[in-house]
Amino acid sequence: MNTREPILKPVAIDALRPTQITVGLREVNQKRKEWRGRTDEGGGEFLGRHMIPSVLGPKGLHYIIDNHHLARALHEEGVASVLVTVAADLTILSKTSFWTYLDNKSWCHPYDSDGRRTDFDAIPSSIDKLEDDPYRSLAGDLRRAGGFAKDTTPFSEFLWADFLRKRIKRKAVEKDFGAALKRAVVLAKGTEAGYLPGWCGADPMG
Fold it and tell me: How far from the centroid of its chain's Cα atoms is residue 57's Cα?
């Protein structure tokens, strides 16, 4: 396929198709609060700087390949449309070939809220149907707490979420998120986390 210049256009959020099954709803709510704190003018400038990357898929639909949390937050706040940058036009592909291509490009993440890989058909058809994975929220807060560095590895925070999922019980995360975050910070400094993207190294005092 030929390399294309990015195409910018406004697209209704309701028309965007996800390429993953889950988000961290706690993180979505944080983004909602950030959005509410902006003036109308500031909101427009923010949307201009935070374009949603997508690919054109079957039937010409926009499948977003990043910023699912932002898209869900804006949807919950009643924002009707967002600017989308089109990374690739894959409309010539069949549905099966389309998802296989996205999978091989690390442009989709068909894992459920238990961290299990599923069929592509399990990926919801709209932003509002994305499921909550509390470990994704835990991973996001862990990064902001300095537990690991932002990294360009696709779905890096989901990799951290899966690491934490195996070491902190879900009930503990849901019952006391703050305590779970403290535990996550300790785990992030251990050598067991060394394979993960953005790992900052073991705590020399630990």
Answer: 19
Per DSSP (E only), the strands in 112-169 are: 131-132
Greatest CA separation found in the chain? 56
CA dihedral 47, 153, 7, 37 (to 10 degrees): 0
The DSSP annotation for 83-98 comes to EEEEEEE-TTS-HHHH
Residues of the chain with CATH 3.90.1530.10: 7-132
Amino acid, res. 159: L
Q: What is the pLDDT of residues 95-140, one digit of tens each?
A: 999 999 999 999 999 999 999 999 999 999 999 999 999 999 999 9
Residue 23, both tokens: 């988000």
Beta bridge partners of 82: 11
Class of domain 134-193: mainly alpha
Q: ∠47-20-52 over CA atoms, to 5°?
A: 15
Domain 7-132 classification at class level: alpha beta
pLDDT for position 105:
97
Q: Per the structure block, which two tokens stand in for 116?
A: 């299990």
| Closest to 55 (Cα-Cα) out of 101, 89, 102, 94 | 89
**What is the pTM for the complete model shown?**
0.90
